[in-house]
Structure formats: C-alpha cells, structure tokens
Design a protein that fits this description.
Elements: E1 2-12, H1 17-27, E2 31-40, E3 43-53, H2 57-66, E4 73-78, E5 89-98, H3 103-112, E6 117-127, E7 134-144, H4 150-164, E8 166-174
Helix pairs in contact: 3-4
C-alpha cells in the first residue's frame, strides 16, 4: 500500500535541484503528485506531496537524507489520513496597499480567530508606477467554515482594510460536496 508523504526541500539555489530530488524519488518508485517550488533571496524552497510503496519508504528516507551532501535539506512528514472537510467554502482573497510591517499578521490573525484556514498565500512588493511608493500585494486561497457567513467575513475584512489602509477583496467558490 502506498504511503503519502509531504516533503519540504531547501537549499541555496543552483541548477539541478529539482532534477536531483525527482531522480531520487523516481529511483525509489515514488510518484511526485503536487508541488510548489520557489526561489527567494537566492534560496530555493520546495513543498511537494508524493506517494511511495510502503516497502520502499525506509530506503527513500535514507536517500533523501543523503541529499544533504549535495546541499539539499529534505524534511519528510507522512500525511495523516483525514476525512474530507465538509461544508467548507473556498474563498480567494486579494489585498493591495502601501507596504508596511504587520499586514499579513493582522489579516492572518483576523482569519484564524474565525476558524478560517489560509491554504495558499503569495505576497509581492513592487513600486507603484504613478508614485514610486512600494505597494504590497497578497493573493491567498482560504477555506472558510460553514459557520462563518460570507457577509460577516466581508465586514471584518473591510474594517481591517480600512484600519490597515489597504484594499481587500474576496471572491467565493464552493468546494465539491462529498457523496
């Protein structure tokens, strides 16, 4: 029976890191399933989900540990079996405003206190073409529990946006329901 793993991989960036990781996984019969990879500040970071036959797990773990010699640090977590989340709504959040410390902290706190999970988050800084000021942009995918009304979430985020002097917009889509 296959075991599902979630791996994080970090290293100073250099060509061939994904080749090294994918070759190691393939050599142990692992199937690369989902991933997000990025380079920030000269550092490579990757997050991926893979499945591996249970009988090959120990050898794969050893081989991944051996990648440290190549400068690639891999952390392995077995993905626990969990029931599908019911009643969650998928919401896209976009925020734009003048950059300052604490924007993500305030938004993350407001969401967490309402049981909203941030599933994906991307942030960027760029100079505004009209003023040259540094603008901060967040794009996030959220899972919102059934008990949190869309109107309530919009009101909370609108008030927070006013306090932070940023524009916050949300767009909702339904997750597929289970049979």
């Amino acid at each position: 029976m296959p075991v599902t793993l979630v791996l994080t991989a970090t290293s100073p960036d250099k060509p061939g890191l994904i080749d090294l990781l994918s070759t190691t996984l393939a050599a142990h019969g692992a199937n690369w399933q989902h991933s997000r990879m990025a380079t920030l500040g000269g550092q490579f970071a990757g997050l991926l989900q893979a499945s591996v036959p249970e009988k090959k797990l120990a050898a794969l773990e050893s081989a991944l540990e051996g990648l440290r010699r190549e400068g690639l640090t891999v952390t392995i977590a077995a993905e626990p079996a969990r029931p599908p989340a019911l009643g969650l709504r998928r919401v896209k959040l976009e925020t734009t405003g003048q950059d300052r410390p604490g924007i993500i902290k305030e938004i993350a706190h407001a969401l967490a206190t309402r049981g909203v999970s941030i599933d994906e988050l991307e942030s960027t800084c760029a100079s505004a073409s009209w003023s040259g000021e540094v603008m901060f942009k967040i794009t996030a995918e959220l899972s919102v529990p059934a008990g949190v009304a869309t109107e309530q979430l919009c009101a909370v985020l609108e008030n927070l946006g006013n306090e932070l002097m940023v524009d916050i917009a949300i767009e909702e889509e339904r997750l597929p329901s289970s049979p």
